[in-house]
Amino acid sequence: MPTAIAADSVGLVSPRVAQFTAPLELACGRTLTDYQLIYETYGTLNPERSNAVLICHALSGHHHAAGYHSLDERKPGWWDSCIGPGKPIDTSRFFVVSLNNLGGCNGSTGPNTVDPATGKPYGADFPMVTVEDWVNSQARLADRLGIEQWAAVIGGSLGGMQALHWSIGYPERIRHCLAIASAPRLSAQNIAFNEVARQAILSDTDYPEGIPKRGLMLARMVGHITYLSDDAMGTKFGRDLKNDKLNYDFNSVEFQVESYLRYQGEEFSGRFDANTYLLMTKALDYFELGDLAKASADFCLMSFTTDWRFSPARSREIVQALVAARKNVSYVEIDAPQGHDAFLLPIPRYLQALHNYLKRIEV
Description:
Elements: E1 16-20, E2 24-25, E3 31-32, E4 35-42, E5 52-56, E6 83-84, E7 89-90, E8 95-99, E9 114-115, E10 120-121, H1 131-145, E11 152-156, H2 158-169, E12 176-180, H3 188-202, H4 213-227, H5 230-236, H6 256-269, H7 274-286, E13 298-304, H8 312-324, E14 329-334, H9 348-358
Parallel strand pairs: 5-8, 5-11, 6-7, 11-12, 12-13, 13-14
Antiparallel strand pairs: 1-4, 2-3, 4-8, 9-10
Binding site for substrate: 220, 341
Site (Important for acyl-CoA specificity): 309
Subunit structure: Homodimer.
């Protein structure tokens, strides 16, 4: 529970729901006849409707990016360090929109919501969704909000892929694209990690009829290892023992890093939907950056030196493609020991670079 809400917080916020009845054709060939998107907004849309910023979330993210839902909430939204008055995504200047994507498990239509055709939750029958599908649904949300053009679309990791697709899928509707710790496509190694995580879920005997808690726990443990750097794990845990002695037992938790991974897996398996995890990892695998010649936005790419999941080399690939396409692009590589998770953390140089770029955007 926050003892007091800081002056640079967006404060108490309430999610909103947009219901859509126009069918949405998906890349997989199926159609959602109707669906809903849950979202939050921070700041005020100006009379010209020119100051709107879209936040696209990563694999396990959601709409609650900043502020608090109640005074009892222990932690603020997942990107609270970046969103608020005077922060890099300054809500005294920008009207910020953050949503939960289709296929999510936090209020938007997804596997744990009811299929109108059957009257039962979609579950494993929810259609496959892609980055393109998400951007198309986000464009409809923008229409609903009366936003013809985003001042910027911003995202980290899988969110960065969405921002990049906005720039070529709707080039006239985005002025600035900020892709952080992202990539033009997944490497074979990344697809392999995702497949191991999916197989942990699919091989759980409680899937698909029940809740595959153990499978989801293992999937998160595998994923979490890739989000941290070797240095970050070494500094945080080293080879420290949990109880200062070895038990010579496969089932016991002996090292602190084992305890940490089990805690992360246990916590995640209690709040996230297994089918959503399967969908999100497949959307990552399917993403392939299109023809940047179509883009008209200005670009900002950011990467982190110890991120081996989406390494700086992957961001530089995008930068080189943008330069070849004669687009305006800024790039910063931030020295940070935290690995891929750095894009979620309040690293001073990162926040300053983000602030410096965004303050140049005219609204």
